[in-house]
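Record type: monomer structure entry
Structure origin: computed from sequence
Chain ID: A
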Amino acid sequence: MSPPDNSPLTSIPHLTLSAAHLATSACEAHARTMNLGMNIAIVDTSLHLLSFARMPGAKLTSIDIAINKAFTAAGHRAPTHVYKENVWPGGAAYGIDKSNGGRFTVIGGGLPIAVEGEDGKQVVVGAVGCSTGTPAQDREVAEKGVEAVKEMIGRSRGAKL
């Protein structure tokens, strides 16, 4: 339910720490099946880091990339891979990677966690960002984190996120 237009406050659901840990664990488990060390970041809807894991073998230079993928996916409410064709010179989003202090990333592997809100519309409650593999591998691992949170929410309909 949306607040009246004259209300001074809004209510926004946020991902919990337990849900973030579940997403991290699901990502880690899937990365192991792929024999990948992975950096995994989970942020809430306010773009704050809730959980981070650096698996053995994960690239040290991918730590910030994973965090920034989650930041971008939650903040822009879209997967990071959707920008791929639009960021080249002349593209509709050319230069967007320079925004937000350089944190906006267009590399695949960042996925928003969207759930049905009280009004029936999808609302982003957080995001998963993974980095070390190829963008396709990072995305595949991130998908497992998103799926785990959605399953958790499905099992606990009516409970707080």
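Annotation 1: The mean pLDDT is 90.
Annotation 2: The first helix runs from residue 17 to 33.
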